[in-house]
Structures are given as C-alpha cells and as structure tokens.
Amino acid sequence: MTGKPTGPASSADAAAGSGDGHVVDLNADLAESYGAWRLGDDEALLEIVTSANIACGFHAGDPLTIRRACANAVARDVAIGAQVSYHDLAGFGRREMTVPPEELAAEVLYQLAALDGIAKAEGGRVSYVKPHGALYNRAARDPEQAAAIAAAVSSYDNTLPVLSLPGSETAAAAARVGLPAVAEAFADRAYNDDATLVRRGTPGAVLTDSATVAARVKGLVIHGTLHSVSGKELAISARSVCIHGDTPGAVRLAWAVRAALEQAGVTLASFA
Length: 272
Fold this sequence. Notes:
Blueprint: H1 11-16, E1 23-30, H2 42-46, E2 51-55, H3 63-75, E3 79-84, H4 101-121, E4 126-131, H5 133-141, H6 143-156, E5 162-164, H7 169-176, E6 181-186, H8 210-223, E7 225-227, E8 233-235, E9 240-243, H9 250-263, E10 267-268
Parallel strand pairs: 1-2, 1-9, 1-10, 2-3, 3-4, 5-6, 6-9
Antiparallel strand pairs: 7-8
C-alpha cells in the first residue's frame, strides 16, 4: 500500500531526525461493528493503514461486517490479520478470563480458520494473527495462555506471524514453535514504566490528541524510544504500530501518524 503522498519533509523534520531507511507497519482494528451497532470507520481506516486486524466474531464483528472488511482490505492491498479474542461479545473481549489451554487453543483455531475462509472467498488470506484486548494482555504475561495461542496458530499455518508486545510471553511462545514473532507498539495507548500498557479506565490510558500521538510515534519509529506516563524513557523496537479503531477520532489520529512518518522519510509497509 502506497497511500497518499504528503510532500517532502520540512527542515524542522530533518532537524528532528530523518526516518530514511526505517520501515514500519501501521495497523488498526476493524470489523468491530455488530448488527445494528456501529463502531469505527473501516473504509476510512483502510485508506490509511497497511494491515487490518479483523475481528473474528468472538469479541465483535458479524459475518457481513467481517466479509465486507475482508473484501475492502483485499481491494486496497491491505494485509489481513485475524484478531482472535476470548469468547466475550458482551465485554468486547476486554474482560480477562481464565480459559483452559485446550479450550483456548480450539477457540483461537476456530476464529482463525473462519476468518481465513472468508478472506479467501474475497480473494485474500489471513497473513498474521493478533490477539485482542484482554487475551492480548493476559497472554503477554501468562506462558500457559500464550502457549495455547501459539499452538493453535502453528497447527493451522506454521508460517503465520504473531503480533505482540516486545519481550512478551506471546512472542516467546511463538518463537518456541517456530512462528515469526513481530513486535508491536501502540500509538494511542499510554505505557507504564515496565513497558506494559496502562490499564483501560485509568485516566490518560487512551491518547486522543493527534499532534501528541503523531510526534510520539515518529520518535518511536526513528529513535526507538517513547515515554511512559511517569516520563521515563522506554527503549522499544517495533515493526508495527497500532491505532485502535474504537479510539475517539481514530481516523484523524491515523492520518496524523501516517503524515508525520511519511514526512520524516519513513516507509510504511506491512510486515506480512
């Protein structure tokens, strides 16, 4: 995906550091509407991002919404990722659950296979996997849950990359079974001093100011650092950056991030 040009970098951009040689993926969560309940702007985000984390029906997404998202992603040459979740429609997949490993592996496999089938019907395919919400955060620190995810993905396609936080249990579990582990950072989420995400519901956990978010992501991509909520500088190397589709002003944030990166000479391309 090449996107829309935003012009050459300004002298201020050059002074702040060049992104020449840097390549990053910009991903967003899509297909999270359900029936009459609408969430996010899939079509607008697909004009901006290089990878789409498409809901698989367990935390959000009805069959028609999912099919349309796959078709639109294929039409725009955006990589399709399976955003697998706990079985938690009522809680949008953001309530932590303790699911037996065998059951969790089966649920992840079910979601992945279903989305890949729809993607293939639209001329595409699932090219990576990303856990959603509470499953993402739980697996990042829980070796058992992480192993269940990795086992499910590996049993379906042992070439599929798994998106996760750098140094997470998810990344370690993926590596143990030979799956590519891709490090991810978050544009619109605040970080704790230990490089984990600030819990949702905490004041300041979700970032919505486009200038702040764009500058933060630019620094992350070019310098490999961002600041925690306490001001601590964190060293984070990420191949992909996420903007949540349900964050207020998500489309505006995504455009601001993309423009800042392109103006700094960063290449936007999917890792998949």
